[in-house]
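Quick question, first post here. What does this chain look like in 3D?
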Amino acid sequence: MSVEDGLVMQIHPGSVRNHNRKLYERYGRDVARTSRWRRLCEALRPLLDQFGNERELTIILFTLDESAYSRELGPLAGTIRACGWGRRGGFMTVRRNDALPRAGNGDGGFYNTVGFNDDTRAFLSIPARHDLARRMDCAYLAKLVAEHRLEEEEALEVAQDLAYRLVKKAYRL
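> Answer (accepted):
Ran it through. Tokens below.
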């Protein structure tokens, strides 16, 4: 249907939701969640074999398993035309400043991400989360410039892409 209607598909593979019955009963669905490591690429293979090269399809992949970004989602986004990987904001609150950008930029690259988009339902935290994401991205880019792995002009361009243009492009806004 996403090929037909042009809407972007988001998939959160590997998520196990509602695993704590007491939390579920008290607060409702999707509160108690965790990650179950599985081979994400293999689980997605039937979908991607059939639709992964469709020009009109965009699939953004998120996961709760941070290690899956460098292990599976980055390389997958680098080889399947329809795929990009989304950066989950929750990692920012528990990880070192440069852990998330480094996690997905092996084979995936900056330009296989969709920048920082946020699926939080905590609406009051959205400005702070986006500000923190921009600061973390810029700190990581500054590190790459200091290590002479990226020119300053390139880092400025990538920063603008991560903060604005990649999200706009991914969601066709």
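The chain has one domain: 2-170.
DSSP finds seven helices and five strands in the chain.
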